[in-house]
Amino acid sequence: VVITPTLGSRDEFGSTGEVMDDFAFVGAKLGDGNVTDSGAVYIFQNELGSWNEKAKLIPPIGDGLQTFSHGLEVLDDLLIVSSIGVGSGGMAYIYKMHDENASDWRLISALDNNDSTTHSTRQFLPIASNKGMIAIGSPEDSQNLVEGGSFKVFLNQGWQEGSALRLDPLF
């Protein structure tokens, strides 16, 4: 059983989860981050058969009820966290493990699902990733049709590079 001692009642720990190698990423969509009920992600590492909490990620924007950790996606040393209660149509935050230190995850990018219009109280923000691409679905987007949906793909090969991409000079 994986659990953290910092849980509060109604945090909804375990509302999302991902596993990669010796890591478990567990969302608490109403966990207390920088404000009450903003959401949180807990990162655990399996060390000799014991799951130890290494980090707790909180939303970079301090709004309550943003359901930070609504969706989780792992891609190598990147963790993508969706949050439906912030931005114009939800946000996806990209964290990178720094120097192979499981306790040090740094925000490297924020993707705004802008230009989405949702009139429903049901909100979804599915995310997927592969080879430098991160996709955000917005099935209830009503920009073109009422809840007709939309799908956005963000591409940045640098998300998977250990160092900055080399670019040829323009001049």
What can you see in these coordinates?
- It is a single chain.
- With 171 residues, the chain is mainly β.
- 0% of the residues lie in helices and 44% in strands.
- It has no helices and 11 strands.
- The chain has strands at 13-20, 23-28, 40-47, 50-57, 68-75, 78-83, 91-97, 105-112, 127-130, 133-138, 150-155.
- It has a 4-stranded antiparallel beta sheet with strand order 1-2-3-4, with no helix packed on it.
- The relative contact order is 0.13.
- The model is unreliable at 118-122 and 160-171 (pLDDT under 50).
TL;DR?
With 171 residues, the chain is an all-beta fold. The protein has strands at 13-20, 23-28, 40-47, 50-57, 68-75, 78-83, 91-97, 105-112, 127-130, 133-138, 150-155. Residues 118-122 and 160-171 have low confidence and may be disordered.
Task: Set down the secondary structure blueprint.
Layout: E1 13-20, E2 23-28, E3 40-47, E4 50-57, E5 68-75, E6 78-83, E7 91-97, E8 105-112, E9 127-130, E10 133-138, E11 150-155
Antiparallel strand pairs: 1-2, 2-3, 3-4, 5-6, 6-7, 7-8, 9-10, 10-11
